[in-house]
Amino acid sequence: MNPTTMGQAQVDRPTARLSLAYVWVAYAAFGLAALAGMLQGMVRGGLIELPSWTNYYQILTAHGVLMALIFTTYFIIGFLLSGVAKTTGGSLHGTARGLGWIGWILMTIGTAMAVVTIVMNDASVLYTFYAPLKASPFFYIGSALLVVGSWFGGFAIFSSYRKWRRENRGKLSPLFVFMSVTTFILWLIATVPVAVEVLFQLIPWSLGWTPSINIMLSRTLFWFFGHPLVYFWLMPAYIAWYVCVPRVIGGHIFSDSLARLSFILLLLFSMPVGFHHQLMEPGISPGWKMIHVILTLIVVVPSLMTAFSMFATFETTGRKKGGVGLFGWFKKLPWSDVRFFAPFVGMLFFIPAGAGGIINASNQMNAVVHNTIFVTGHFHITIGAAVALTFFGVSYWLIPVLTGRTLTRTANRMGMVQTVFWSVGMFLMSFAMHYLGLQGTPRRTDYTTYMDHPTALGWMDYQRVMGFGGGLLFVAAVLLILILGYLTFYAPKGKTEYPIAEPETEQHTPRILERWPVWVGVLLFLIVMAYGIPIADQLTHNPPGSPPIRTW
Ligand code: HAS
Q: Among 289, 369, 379, which is best to mutate for testing ligand 1, by the most ligand atoms less than 8 A from CB?
């Protein structure tokens, strides 16, 4: 039997329609973002010049917002809603679906507002929208709607979870659901500070109601949100690694307790760490920065647990399939199945990406790499490779599940080609970025030779490598959209498996892992400890503040 066509109940039509609506907006944003990314890579490499009606920072903002904020958020909600439906009986109940649709509508209005302001060149403030760069108020209102809409996606998940618990008293929730709930608890708490920044600082200031803005406070609120944001991207990829990939390779979840504990640790330690993005900024005392750095090093632990767990899953599965010797099991993994191959390559990327994160987090080394293109290289191999390749791998089976079609052999083969193109492009581009960053090349800058300064001229070959890598990534992006379009509209009808693995033996997972008041309580304590005094300081020793600046 084709491994992707099994005869079990998957996801009902109304839920499938909702998930598909999220996934397809995600890929529409992804396509535009990929185009903008290629253009900016080529400009930065000195390979092309943009026409006079646009500029580098406009394209860079479009790329960052569409890729990092819109593609990810839509995909994550679409994926998690479908998985929660699948693992709680095959459908979302009416209220949950209603919440899901309200979220989709709010997010889509917000996305349209933000995109229109970027297209009108009224919001070239990059995806971090750092003050004192000022965008149109509609950009901030659009972003606020995007965030509020995403909360409804979370409410839909919570509502399904509550219903499931009511009907299954005393039972441990399915791992997929537990992980989705953790991800959205993180998201709801993490988005509060950025909502405060947008509603009480940026919108009144951009409307001219307040003359100046407290820059330190706005950046602190942004990074209070900004670091958990990266785990909001990572945790759904980890869900696929822990729950879906083992099933794809014909194996089991290594340990249910370990998987749940790693998610609880991600929830607790992803938030009180935002100052590691502000290590080089004045106005925060070194003591508080040190506390955030220590907590950052703790948040690495659940990723190391995940690495251990994945290795264990791969080895035990390979050995059960007859692999012998030290590495015989490795050959037994399904290398020609894109549903495994794409996320696996993502895992490989995540090894140097994690090491780069630890470099960034170390105060003295941060002084070398901060605001250089090294950081851009870091986030392309985390979100752009480890997470994105996992999302692609998921899409290759998720879209057929949702459309009632099958992943054909040809589509699978094309998916493998697409994965190779994306990986080679990402490797070339991000290797050049890391190297250039260590030479001092700044990030967030248009093409320039700094008046033919010899140091800057020495960067040019690597900048061209970056541009070439960006070109390969664009080819891979087009290929991906063509394959996903085929899987949505043209692939043969049939049932595709939604891969959900189970642990091999009965597990005795400690029930405390599902006691949310305990973990939310600990999290709030850590947040108050890490942020209480510094934020109070920034409020009371309020510097004069900055008027809005438009640099473009
Ligand atoms: Fe980061 C900047 C530190 C992880 C994304 N990061 C960024 C920015 C983004 C980003 C977008 O401390 C730029 C923001 C901006 O625009 O300014 N990051 C870390 C640390 C981690 C980390 C310590 N980052 C991520 C992830 C991201 C992401 C994940 C997106 C998804 N990052 C920083 C710091 C900065 C920063 C500073 C600020 C820099 C500055 O100065 O501006 C850690 O969480 C990483 C832990 C990961 C590991 C790897 C575990 C490996 C695994 C794979 C196992 C492989 C297997 C394969 C199983 C320890 C799980 C099996 C293989 C076989 C052969 C069988």
A: 379
pLDDT at position 9 is 52
Domain ranges of the chain: 172-248+250-333+521-542
Q: Which helix (H) or strand (E) holds 187?
A: helix 175-196
pLDDT tens readout for residues 96-118: 999 999 999 999 999 999 999 99
Closest protein CA for atom 6 of ligand 1 = 379
Q: Which amino acid is at 501?
A: A
Per-residue pLDDT tens over the stretch 376-408: 999 999 999 999 999 999 999 999 999 999 999
pLDDT band of residue 541 (cuts 50, 70, 90) is confident
DSSP 276: G
Contact 51, 133 (CB under 8 A): no
Pocket perturbation via mutation, ligand 1, pick of 133, 220, 238, 350 by most ligand atoms within 8 A of CB: 350
- Our answer to whether residue 231 is catalytic in this structure is yes
Residue type, 438: L
From the candidates 165, 319, 444, 464, give the one annotated as an active-site residue: 444
The chain-wide mean pLDDT, for the chain, equals: 95
Residue by residue, what is the 3-state secondary structure of 520-533?
Answer: HHHHHHHHHHHHHH
pTM above 0.85, yes or no: yes
Q: Which residues 6+ apart lie within 8 Å of 209 measured at CB?
A: none
> What is the CA 234 to chain-centroid distance, rounded?
5
- Give 505's DSSP letter: S
Peptide bond into 534 cis (omega under 30): no
CA atoms within 13 A of residue 538's CA, in its CB half-sphere: 20
End-to-end CA distance of the chain: 58
The first and second tokens of residue 30, run together, are 């992804």
pLDDT tens digit sequence for 63-92: 999 999 999 999 999 999 999 999 999 999
Q: Do the Cβ atoms of 60 and 444 come closer than 8 Å?
A: yes
